[in-house]
Amino acid sequence: MLSLPILASILFLFLFITLSSSFLPPPLLRLQTSLNLNLLIHPHSTPFNSTHSFTSYPPTHNYIKHCKTILKKEKNIKQSLLGFYTVNGDLVDDTFIYPTPLNKFTYSSSPLSLILSVPRPPILKFLIKTLSTLGISEIVLCRSDKSQRDYYGSHLLKNFTSTDSKGYDYTDNIGEQIIEGLVQSGLPYPPKIKLLGVNELNRYIKGHSQIPEYGLEYDFKGFKKIIPHLTETNNTISKVLSTSSNAKTVFAIGPEGGWTDEEVDLFEDKGFKVISLGESILKVEQAAVVCCGVGIDYYNSREE
After folding, report:
1. What is the per-residue pLDDT for 149?
2. In terms of domains, do 127 and 272 share one?
3. Looking at the domain assignment, is residue 285 inside a domain?
């Protein structure tokens, strides 16, 4: 039987944890607080007059606190409407007022794209944010033999089909991760993201009706096509990139456990080159970031 002092200590610890957690901000605000706000990006705007627009936030929003406590200014603040060029605007009574952008909505123009087998929701959340920060142009989310079917029904993908669909406003869970990634990067141009439907079977693959869709209907014409796989090959990302003159590259990142051999064969039939990322078995998010990092370095070096 526990002694009175021990019971008192346990009770104190329980009360401390309970009361402390009640004063913590909700998860979204905790996440936002950890962001580096290198560019304030507004998901939407309202016309203010013939030349300016505005976006309002609650007083507790991280943008408001950042301007008042970190920047300590409310004039000439660097900001952008999502998908438009960066401008300077003012903060007036918790409302940002800025010149209305005149260009059309623009997606990222990066030469890198990704086919990604849908991972666990926390990993997908991390990857959407990170790939947005890295400036990836397009992300095609697909199923695979080893991916869990219930990942498609997660809160993160609920009611989501594509950022390119009519009426999409970036206010859902996917849009939130995109904006947070762009706020970190300081660039306002988002990636295109497409979630392949449950019954969207690859129309290019005949006689394989039992196999899920892989995004191969995205022909990626003119792309270097690379699929990392744990296999014995001397092919590396750098070798494939340096031996092809194609202006763009798409990586096919598999699920935990990797693509099956049959899946790899299907990708190879569509022109993908199998490469090795070394002897280490990487997690999905590690493989994706490694591929994108090498790709970014390659294309940056070509511009020098």
Report:
1. 77
2. yes
3. yes
